[in-house]
Specification:
about 100 residues
Length: about 100
């Protein structure tokens, strides 16, 4: 019994450290107060400018592949930005032909 306790006690500390803290909510909050808090949080999120993530274009070249060949490409970002980049690449390809 003592051995199990000696093994379990450090694991409990580790689990408490790894587990996220439970959000604290007042036990006496009325539904109107909870609604008001939710409304304030929604308004705060709406007022904060959204984060603009940049368009990422990654070109993957295989060993021994000449630079004139495109290889594989990974394009990530907002759908509108990805489509614009694809249109730009198609226009460049059409200009070369």
């Amino acid at each position: 019994m003592n051995t199990a306790y000696a093994l379990w006690t450090p694991l409990q500390g580790l689990l408490r450290w790894l587990a996220p803290a439970a959000p604290s909510r007042p036990a006496t909050a009325t539904p109107a107060q909870r609604s008001s808090v939710r409304m304030q949080a929604a308004m705060t999120r709406a007022c904060v400018a959204p984060v603009r993530r940049p368009l990422r274009v990654v070109r993957v070249m295989e060993a021994g592949q000449p630079r004139s060949q495109v290889g594989r490409m990974v394009i990530s970002g907002r759908m509108a930005d990805v489509c614009a980049e694809l249109d730009r690449l198609a226009a460049c390809e059409a200009a070369r032909s």
